[in-house]
Amino acid sequence: MALMKVKDILQHATENHYGVAAINTFNYESVMWAAEAAKRERIPLIIQLYPGYESYISLHHVASFAKEFAEKADVPIAVHLDHSATYEIAARGIKAGFPSVMVDGSSKPFEENVAMTAAVVRTAAVFDVDVEAELGHVGSGAKLDDIINSDNYTNVEQAIEFVQRTGCGSLAVAVGNAHGAYIQTPNLDFDRIKKLRASLPVPLVLHGCSDIPHEQLQESVRLGMSKFNIATEYFRACSASIAKVATEGNYRGDYCTLLQQASEDAIEFVRGKMRLLNPNGFSL
Ligand SMILES: [Zn+2]
């Protein structure tokens, strides 16, 4: 029974100097393959869902089977709802059974972000649910300005005030990272990561970790970043696995065979990321 709180996994990671892969999923297989990677790699993992996929699969479905995989795993796995853009989405995630939610008010003015985050924290506390928030806006990797314009990055003084006033459990920061495929190789602002780490009492989260060069991810781990969100690259790996099996000469169109045989490459992708974020080789 190893469903564990995000808060506890991130604390364990901080104490043992590794970064936790937070793998975005959207269906049964993507959850199962991520959980299998954690079991084989022997380090904790976070499985998460972006609520934008709600039109494809219900929050309740993913929360249910992700928690069941976690409970049956012999390594700690946490289950988290990614980017809730409104109070209502975060609350719906809590109602659907997510033990951890993100509320993202980073595109709103500071005071509105504080108010929405604090409201989610109050509601979440009633149900003992962890809350990740965001300050400084992590934009799109397709837009150069979102990557290189430091006006979008997290301001250290504001972050201190934000964490104090909202009571959020972890904070996603903007330090040159962005979502999706990058139009240009990112160049993370390590000085800012150092200052944020030294100034804030909560674990820090790096979104948009797909395609960030390996040495930059490992330096971020060394500087104390705790949670590393990976979506784009995992979805790419899942698609590539399925495409590979489907185009093999001996494939006869059986759907079950397709998914079962596609699992190995996707599992190995997640294991590779877990090893990358674990430069000291921690193992349970
Ligand atoms: Zn994100």
Task: Report on this structure.
The protein has helices at about 5-15, 30-40, 60-70, 85-95, 110-125, 145-150, 155-165, 190-200, 215-220, 230-245, 255-275; strands at about 20-25, 45-50, 75-85, 100-105, 130-135, 170-175, 205, 225-230. With about 280 residues, it is of the alpha/beta class. The chain has a single domain (about 5-275), classed as TIM Barrel (Alpha-Beta Barrel). The chain has an eight-stranded parallel beta barrel with strand order 1-2-3-4-5-6-7-8, surrounded by eight helices. Helix 3 (about 60-70) packs across helix 4 (about 85-95). The longest helix is centred in the C-terminal third of the chain and has 22 residues, at about 255-275. It starts with 5 loop residues before the first helix and ends in an 8-residue tail after the last helix. Bound molecules: zinc ion (ZN).
